[in-house]
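Handout for the seminar on molecular recognition.
Each group receives one record of this type.
Step one: identify the two inputs.
Step two: read the structure output and locate the region that could contact manganese (II) ion.
Step three: write two sentences on what you found, then compare them with the reference statements printed after the record.
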Amino acid sequence: MYHHVKNLMYDVNVGEPDVRFGRMLLEQFGGANGELAAAMQYTLQGWSCDDPERRDLLMDIGTEEISHLEVVGALIRMHFKPMKKELEDAEQDPLVAVVGGGGLNLFNSMGNPWTADYLKIAGELDVDLRNNIAAEARAKITYERLMHLTDDRGTKDALQFLMTREITHMKAFSAALESLGKDPFSIGKLPPTPGLVDEYYNDSTGEDPEAGKVGVGKWIEMNGLHVVDSPFSFDAKGSGLTVDGHNGHNGKSSTRPRPTSGAKLKTA
Ligand code: MN
Ligand code: MN
């Protein structure tokens, strides 16, 4: 059940309306990493969740995101005000000015309509919590970039609040994930293939024109991986991509299943 409280979650003041900035703010309203996407992602995950404690968390944060949407909406409304009267301002976004009367609608900064395709819902709690941690990280960085693009004090203050809350959510989703006590690489029920799972394929050849010889660092071994030569390589004459074992490739043995005979690959 939902209930509307007539106050905003954070009081919004805009000193100097800026239609162009308001348009960029639409990214956090009807955009891929915006507040509606966050609200719908967590709420729908919550409605599907069989774990009462984590369902509560998903619903709490989903509800807070709707309150964020309201704050972003208030900011956009104030920044859009001039487009109701001035041709130059209306020109910044004719879709909003002429079709929407300078009001809010679910578009991103480029006028693309909001879509449920933005939502990442896997229906597996730990996978969804990871989706949410990533969503919060994207929301945080988007707010940070927006903050660099305005000098308006009141706008900056509201964005600072919203940006901060995304880190709070990130902490909460991370705690929920850790509290499940699952091995971080155990996803779903089927185990990965032993041996194969620990092979990191070195899929690069040549030298970086700027940096010279670079490769993956020792840190790759942190989670039990080891580097093996790619089963695919360019042949010496540079005539195309070949499969390990078909053209003198000297790679160390790999447990990757080999393509059956006749599977020699050639690039165009
Ligand atoms: Mn938010
Ligand atoms: Mn959030």
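Reference statements: Residues 245-253, 258-268 have pLDDT under 50 and may be disordered. The domain at 19-178 is CATH 1.20.1260.10 (Ferritin).
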